[in-house]
Specification:
Layout: E1 2-6, E2 12-16, E3 26-29, H1 45-54, E4 58-60, E5 63-65, H2 67-83, H3 89-92, H4 97-110, E6 111-112, E7 117-118, H5 124-131, H6 135-145, H7 153-211
Antiparallel strand pairs: 1-2, 2-3, 4-5, 6-7
Helix pairs in contact: 4-6, 5-6
The structure holds zinc ion.
Length: 216
């Protein structure tokens, strides 16, 4: 379970409770979802999951496992695996019902159906790696029940940034072109004036200029 709360200074925080033990909750900085509909604040699930994973937590099927419990689970499952034979290859190509449920549970938390993409930085791959399953299984269930787009908020933001930079460059280039055009025109004007002056000099001649009180 992850609770959203605010520090005395107002900073958004998350408090994560291990589903398997009674240890102190993990407290960390985490954005909250904009509270349009919900009265109780909720954390941005994708961000909270990523931060917890970085701290060694495992987010699996809507449950959280602290690093200690995860280490215990791994030790137990490794001992178990060494006792049982490997599953036949055919069984590995399809998720079991329980695995499908786990994938669906997690997708429900990290996929924004309204926006049609993953929240935060999650992808089929991150979901698959959290659950320790095949990314293809996640993609299949995600497409069937959630949305066709496997992109996410972070990718969208990056694309927006790139588009903005391209716009800026286009603008710079076009203002550069205007400057060059302006400069060329001025240069032509200057050359035209120069040749005009030369013609006047020739037409008048040194004597005429002296008469008019102009030094040649
Ligand atoms: Zn624990």
């Amino acid at each position: 379970m992850i609770e959203a709360f605010r520090e005395a200074h107002g900073q958004p925080r998350a408090r994560a409770f291990c589903s398997s033990c009674d240890r102190e909750p993990e407290v960390f900085a985490c954005e909250h979802e904009p509270s349009r509909r919900k009265k109780v604040p909720t954390v941005v699930a994708g961000m909270a999951h990523k931060k917890l994973q970085n701290m060694g937590w495992v987010v699996s099927g809507g449950k959280l496992r602290c690093p200690t419990c995860e280490a215990k689970r791994k030790a137990v499952s490794m001992a178990h695996a060494s006792q049982t034979k490997a599953a036949p290859a055919a069984q590995l190509n399809e998720p079991t019902r329980a695995q499908k449920r786990q994938i669906m549970d997690l997708l429900g938390e990290v996929y924004d159906v309204d926006a049609g993409r993953y929240l935060g930085g999650d992808t089929d791959d991150t979901v698959a790696s959290v659950l320790d399953m095949m990314p293809g299984w996640v993609a299949q269930l995600r497409e069937e029940f959630f949305g066709a787009d496997g992109g996410n908020d972070d990718m969208d933001a990056a694309l927006r940034d790139i588009r903005k930079v391209v716009e800026d460059i286009t603008e710079l280039l076009s203002s550069g072109r205007t400057l060059v055009e302006l400069g060329t025109k001025k240069l032509e004007q200057a050359q035209a004036l120069e040749s005009q002056v030369a013609k006047i000099k020739v037409a008048v001649g040194p004597r005429g200029l002296k008469k008019a009180g102009v030094q040649a």
